């Protein structure tokens, strides 16, 4: 996976110290309701399209860029579904440590689903899948995010279109409650 230039420059100064980054993911659907997934080069797992927000870049622009770079498709973000601080600290093979603020968007395809193709070295394959017939192995984070999208859509059907947020209790323990924007 290529590391963004701004991270490479930071790592020259801080080494493998923990970096707080913004990760952006898109749940992309075509007009038939199929979900776009890419098979990740680093893990071999199928996953939603995602990427790291560049300094000064709007998060919605990040996911539009990533969809084009990774899968060759043009998209339009339609809703911010979820915002949360991932409590996992990832350590990459080279020793770099990161933690992410995760933003999850719904997005619709603009153009033809047949345009989807592997666009860079981050994926070995891309494809459209029916929600009830997803490929294996599926990344754990993708299973979690699909569940979040389902919960969000249930709320939308009840008239609440606000993004999901986690609420942390004053004592520092995370609760299962969600706040509305």
Characteristics:
181 residues, alpha+beta, single chain, 23% helix, 10 strands, disordered C terminus, 3 helices, 3-stranded antiparallel β-sheet, 7-stranded mixed β-sheet
Report on this structure.
- This protein is of the alpha+beta class.
- The chain is 23% helix and 38% strand.
- Strand 2 (35-40) and strand 3 form a beta hairpin.
Topology:
Blueprint (H helix, E strand, L loop, with lengths): L4 H10 L4 E11 L5 E6 L5 E2 L1 E4 L6 H13 L2 E12 L4 E2 L5 E14 L12 E7 L10 H18 L6 E5 L5 E6 L2
Parallel strand pairs: 1-7, 5-9
Antiparallel strand pairs: 1-4, 2-3, 2-8, 5-7, 6-7, 9-10
Helix content: 10-25%
Shape: globular
The whole-angstrom Rg is: 17 Å
| CA distance, first residue to last residue | 34 Å
What class do helices, strands and sheet pairing give?
alpha+beta
Uncertain residue segments: 175-181
Q: What proportion strand?
A: 35-45%
Sheet of most strands:
7 strands, mixed
The counted number of beta strands is: 10
List the total number of helices: 3
- Rounded mean pLDDT score: 92
Compressed to H and E, one letter per element, the order equals: HEEEEHEEEEHEE
Task: Summarize the entry for a quick read.
With 181 residues, the protein is of the alpha+beta class.
């Amino acid at each position: 996976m290529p590391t963004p230039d701004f991270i490479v420059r930071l790592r020259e100064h801080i080494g493998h110290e923990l970096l707080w980054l913004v990760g952006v993911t898109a749940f992309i659907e075509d007009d038939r309701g199929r979900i776009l997934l890419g098979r990740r080069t680093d893990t071999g797992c199928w996953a939603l399209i995602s990427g790291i927000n560049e300094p000064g870049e709007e998060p919605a622009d990040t996911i539009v860029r990533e969809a084009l770079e990774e899968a060759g498709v043009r998209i339009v973000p339609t809703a911010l579904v979820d915002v949360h601080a991932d409590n996992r600290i990832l350590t990459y093979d080279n020793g770099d440590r990161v933690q992410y603020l995760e933003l999850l968007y719904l997005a619709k395809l603009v153009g033809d689903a047949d345009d989807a193709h592997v666009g860079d070295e981050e994926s070995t394959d891309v494809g459209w899948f029916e929600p009830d017939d997803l490929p294996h192995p599926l990344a754990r984070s993708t299973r979690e995010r699909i569940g979040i999208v389902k919960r969000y859509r249930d709320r939308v059907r009840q008239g609440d279109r606000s993004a999901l947020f986690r609420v942390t209790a004053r004592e520092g323990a995370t609760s299962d409650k969600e706040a509305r924007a």
